[in-house]
Structures are given as C-alpha cells and as structure tokens.
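Internal tracking record. Fields below are filled automatically when a chain is submitted to the structure queue. Please do not edit lines marked as system-generated. If the sequence contains nonstandard residues, flag them in the REMARKS field before resubmitting.
Queue: standard
Priority: normal
Entity type: single polypeptide chain
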Amino acid sequence: MPLLLSAVATQRPDDFDLVETCARRVGNVWAQVSALAWIAALNPNPRAARWLAMLLEATGWRRLVLVPPEVAADAALGLASLGLRGQAIVELASTAGRPNVLLDVSLRHIDDTAAPLASRLAAVEALGTLGTTRAADVLARLGRRNDELGRRARIVSDRKRRTGLTEREIEVLQLARVGGTNREIAEQLSLSQHTIARHLANARAKLGAANRTEAAMKLDELEV
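SYSTEM-GENERATED OUTPUT FOLLOWS
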C-alpha cells in the first residue's frame, strides 16, 4: 500500500512498475491490478496490458482501488489501442464515465472481426448507453446486418422506442440488474445517489414494475 500510494502521488510509470512487481511477488492481486491499470493509462505496453486484461477477466473487478475513473478510462483505451479485446475491457470503459472513450473502445471491438463475439456484443450494448448521435448512427448501421451483432443492435435501438426508457435509465437498470446498489452505481457513473434513485423510479414507472428486480426482469424480456 505505501508503494502504491507513493506511485499515485508521483504518477511515474517506473514507480508503478515497481508496485506491480512487488505485488505480484507477494500475491497481492488488487494492488497488482491497480498498478497495471495505471501503467496501461500512462505508458501502455504489451506485457502489462496482457496481464491487466487477464486479471480483469479473472477477477471481474471494474472499480479498482486508487484508480480514478479517468485513469480507468485511459487504461481501457490503452488496452484497446494495443489490440486487446474482451468484455472486461468494454465494461471497464463503461464504468469510467467517459463517453468519448467508451465510444472509441466499443468501435474498436465492433469493427474487429477477430474479437470474441461476447466482447463485440458487449460493445453494442455499451453504445446503447450513449445518447450521442454517433452512437445512434452506428447502431442504425449495425441494425441492417443479418448476424448476431445486427440482432443485438436492433434490440438495443428498440428498447427506448418500446419503453420510453432513456439511455441513462437503461444503463442504471442494467447495473442494478447485476446487483449494484444505488451507492455503487452512483460511484460508477459519477452521479449522486439521489439521481440514481430517480432514474430507477422512472424506469420502474415506465416498465410498470413494482421494484427494481421486476424492472430488471422486464428489461430482460425486452432483450429476448
């Protein structure tokens, strides 16, 4: 921890390299992941990027200790820029709250035919959380395809039209669906807990659901 705190203060790549090496030797996975995220954001290199991608997939962690959202966003972009693809990378970009980065990372996955299908579908879902014209245009283009990406793009595009849900309400409900509390969702999206509660209440009302669990189930039904 002292080494990591010192590295965060200096923000020198060499300091994070030392933290990562020490954490790996003693088996401190969370510190290793945090150091690797900083490295991927500040000075991405193939070895660190591969380790970070592997550990993100293995642990399921997306909110990293002592890694601010903007650094997490840059880390996700660093991984994608080096040609790494994975659902965890898209999700890391999604939780960072930087729409331009999420769009970039999503497009890199969608356009890479060699990327795992699950990661490309996750990228399509991520585009559905963005209220930008560019994201809507990409979804419309994908929706004309006769494959899994096209099917998912049509589902994502249809949600708002069928339910009246906004992109943010869908995003909040998706995070609630996987067990996120209002506080956790607020931290991930850099919003207040009051705003999250309001989004969930609006989503429940539009879906005719009594609680967040029922609302999530109704959202699942729309995705079938």
